[in-house]
Amino acid sequence: MIFEKELVHGKLIKRYKRFLADIELDTGEVVITHCTNSGSMKSCLENGAEVFLTPVDDPKRKTKFTWEMIKINGDWVGINTGNPNKLAYEAISSGELPEFNGYTNVKREVKFGDSRFDVYAENENEKCFIEVKNVSMKEGEYALFPDAVTTRGQKHLKTLMDVKKRGMRAVMLYIIQRSDVSVFAPAKAIDPDYAALLKQASEAGVEIIPMQAKVTPTGIVLSRKLPVEL
């Protein structure tokens, strides 16, 4: 995924009200920036750290920038929760992910039951529903999800189990937007219910695929599949 616009560099002053952040640009101007991440952003918030923003021209938007990434421990961490969906769709559509080769029709935002899944793929033999989650939290070498209790995430796992029960392929795809981790696991201490449901879903045949991504100011590229510890 290549960023369509040249990103703007600055440093984080503070994040507040979940969806807002004050950023000081290199020019010295302080701008209010939209933060798409509704979670706690634990382990990827550091006041004074370098950040990159996307400028937004939409006159209807109150904020003129979207926060894309932050530099933590010398490396970029992607915090825009919308990017993993784009990245996954592009990778599956173009055949970049071997786990999803062979599909002839790939769509975004397809409804099943009372849930809407990020990606749907099919061929003449199989239907596949894929839910994509952004992962930015780390603890030691572990990439953890979620970083806050997620009832919506729990609902998605239950619906994926229903998908599998009905004879279709069900996939939980985690996009890990940081390079300083080597294993994926559920954040049991933060949301034990989600962790228990993820294990139950795996045992029911829902596939868990954690893909690590390399985040840079020019774009985001999927790099490798990480092992899972449930």
From TrEMBL:
<feature type="domain" description="SfsA N-terminal OB">
    <location>
        <begin position="13"/>
        <end position="79"/>
    </location>
</feature>
<dbReference type="GO" id="GO:0003677">
    <property type="term" value="F:DNA binding"/>
</dbReference>
<dbReference type="Pfam" id="PF17746">
    <property type="entry name" value="SfsA_N"/>
</dbReference>
<comment type="similarity">
    <text>Belongs to the SfsA family.</text>
</comment>
<protein>
    <recommendedName>
        <fullName>Sugar fermentation stimulation protein homolog</fullName>
    </recommendedName>
</protein>
<dbReference type="InterPro" id="IPR005224">
    <property type="entry name" value="SfsA"/>
</dbReference>
<dbReference type="InterPro" id="IPR040452">
    <property type="entry name" value="SfsA_C"/>
</dbReference>
<feature type="domain" description="Sugar fermentation stimulation protein C-terminal">
    <location>
        <begin position="84"/>
        <end position="218"/>
    </location>
</feature>
<dbReference type="InterPro" id="IPR041465">
    <property type="entry name" value="SfsA_N"/>
</dbReference>
<dbReference type="Pfam" id="PF03749">
    <property type="entry name" value="SfsA"/>
</dbReference>
